[in-house]
Amino acid sequence: MHVPPDTIRSKFSDALSCMYKREVPLYAELLDIVRLTNERALAANPALWSKIARADGLADYNCEPHCAIRVGTPAELSWLRRVFAIMGMYPVGYYDLSVAGVPVHSCAFRPTDRTSLEVSPLRVFTSLLRLELIDDEELRLQAAEILATRRILSDRAIALVSLAEAEGGLSLDDAEEFVGQVLETFRWHDSARVTAETYERLNGVHRLVADVVSFKGPHINHLTPRTLDIDAAQAEMQLRGLKAKSVIEGPPRRDVDILLRQTSFQALSEAIKFLPDGEAEAIIGSHTARFGEIEQRGAALTRKGRALYDSLLASARGEAGAAGPGYVERLESAFAVFPDDADTLRKERLAYFYYEAVPGAEWPVEDNEGEIDIDRCVEAGQVSARPIIYEDFLPVSAAGIFQSNLGGKGRGAYEGNSSQYAFEMALGVPVLDPFDLYSRIEVASQEAALRLIARNAIRKA
Ligand code: OOG
Ligand code: NI
């Protein structure tokens, strides 16, 4: 008997959370802040309970996570794609961060269908280093050489991947071993694979290059719980002296949340033992990579809604980006034209909705051509509609998170380098289009709702 991939992912998500709590005590503090502010938000506004209906109650909601890793080579990316597939996680979306001066491109590995998302929505934001964007040729070759000898998966993990692929799944014992083995890949290592001198040279090119190339594996650099009130959580972070980012990334505060709002606190400085250089003793230095982040998720936008979001965000950011004074005010006034009630978002097809027949509904409402019309069914109270939650990421926000954690020592854009094709070649498969996934969920829910009403109507007739 094979264990369902959803179960393996759940186990992995729990194991990751336990490991990260032990590795980064500040993460436990962050969970505490999120738990506290979620409870306060619910006490002040009990209607918020309807928002968390998707997850299994508040406990899960508080730590419904995403995390992020960065890999060094196409082969590493392709191996991880196989690992994640065993846990029911597939590559979704393409994020080009080179436009923000970060030499990586990324996708998110995540479950794609509604039931799986409900079991455990773990998403892993996965970035691939783009050495080709690095000018210093000697260093580029050295970095490639260092990465070529690294193995990020244990022999046992590799054997279990092959077994799962050959047999179409894993037994319970094998699944448990698989989770334990894969966890090792994402663990923090406080000893580097390079000398302090090499580290400094890599760091000189870009902090991210040093982070990816110097270590044994792609340590997770943050694990993000989900909050109901990110403004309150941000204020609580500041109250407790956590160095929170000054600006919350994403849309402004609204009645109907859309997409994703995120904030983070700065990376920790951690002691690292570098490889000894010749006869010399190993040097102890430091590295900053791991940080804390929280997020608030809202409705997934359609292509039309997303185009509006992108243009309003761009106009609010202007030349100065989010750094200039008065950013929050600029953002709020730019977004004044983005409808902020669920009905308008749905009727104007700005956001995706999940439709359900109201219990006992038996009156399919037709349009003028005699076709059953979903909007009229909603108006007539036969069908309910609630926003589908956004499960993905936002490139501008991700760039802001990257930058703030690289200590502000950012650089300008790498030119004209979006390359989804190169990313997919490395991955070994095309990435899935997030809009298609939401649209499919929406259409399936409409069909199911209308089918049920039609059946009730026939039964009654
Ligand atoms: C990933 C940063 C992006 C998000 O939530 O947008 C990210 C990284 O720093 O590796 O996690
Ligand atoms: Ni993140």
Summary of the model, kept short:
The chain is of the alpha+beta class.
Task: Write structural notes for this entry.
The protein contains 18 helices and twelve strands. The chain has 461 residues and is an alpha+beta fold. The strands form four sheets. Strands 2-3-4-1-6 form a five-stranded mixed sheet. A three-stranded mixed sheet has the order 5-8-9. Strand 2 (90-96) and strand 3 form a beta hairpin. The longest helix has 27 residues, at 434-460. It is globular. 44% of the residues are buried. The site of nickel (II) ion has 7 residues, from strand 1 and strand 6. Nickel (II) ion is lined by residues 66, 68, 125, 222, 224, 293, 401.
Q: By helix and strand content, what is the structural category?
A: alpha+beta
User: What fraction of the residues are assigned to beta strands by DSSP?
Assistant: 5-15%
* Distinct helical segment count: 18
Write the CATH architecture name of the largest domain: Roll
Major pleated sheet: 5 strands, mixed
Oligomerization: single chain
Summed up, the domain count is 2
First-last Cα distance: 46 Å
Number of strands: 12
Q: Which strand order do you get reading across the main beta sheet? A: 2-3-4-1-6
Using only C-alpha atoms, the radius of gyration works out to 23 Å
Which small-molecule species are bound to the chains here? 2-oxoadipic acid, nickel (II) ion
The first-level CATH class of the largest domain is given as Alpha Beta
Based on the model shown, name its key terms.
5-stranded mixed sheet, 18 helices, 3-stranded mixed sheet, 2,3-Dihydroxybiphenyl 1,2-Dioxygenase, domain 1, 461 residues, binds nickel (II) ion, binds 2-oxoadipic acid, alpha+beta
